[in-house]
């Protein structure tokens, strides 16, 4: 039996040299790079009108994702983002819009459009559904909270509704306590239902 015990370990350079000599690896890497470039081009084209519409209101960005985690306020962009949330866009663009709307400035303006999109996402476990749910919770108001109750109590929406209990903070205490006690037994929303219930009980 050959003795490999004294052979030096392969370096990263050695491994890359071997992979580079592997025709299948080279082909797969090239195809992956081409696919990624095609996706980047498709997303850029998908956002083109959105970026132009934002520029018209003085918000100049290269992508809606430039607004995500932006420290300043961009109130003028909110109506544009809501308008485009109701248009046909690539799911990645929709996610960027939803994340950009997860800000206090969008309260009372974006919730209805976010609910519409939330209902349109069929996969209850998708990241997009969760992101939309988070945006709904952030933008909820006393006027929109009653419309969120059917969403948060409908198990068909799965983990996508994980943060929706937080949107119920505007409901009358007696009403929200009953709902939250039931949600506290639902694994998909229990964490945030218990969190809001604890806050209410501290008042």
Please provide a written account of the structure.
- With about 200 residues, this protein is mostly helical.
- It has nine helices and no strands.
- It has helices at about 10-20, 25-55, 80-85, 90-100, 110-120, 125-140, 145-150, 175-185, 190-200.
- The longest helix has about 35 residues, at about 25-55.
Fold blueprint:
Layout: H1 12-20, H2 23-56, H3 78-85, H4 91-100, H5 111-120, H6 127-139, H7 145-152, H8 173-183, H9 190-202
Helix pairs in contact: 3-4, 4-6, 5-6, 8-9
Looking at this protein, list some descriptive labels.
single chain; 203 residues; mainly alpha
* Overall radius of gyration: 23 Å
Oligomer: single chain
The termini sit apart by 75 Å
Helix content range: 55-70%
Mean pLDDT: 88
- Unreliable sequence segments: none
Number of strands: 0
Question: In what range is the share of β-strand residues?
Answer: under 5%
Q: How do the SSEs run, as a string of H and E?
A: HHHHHHHHH
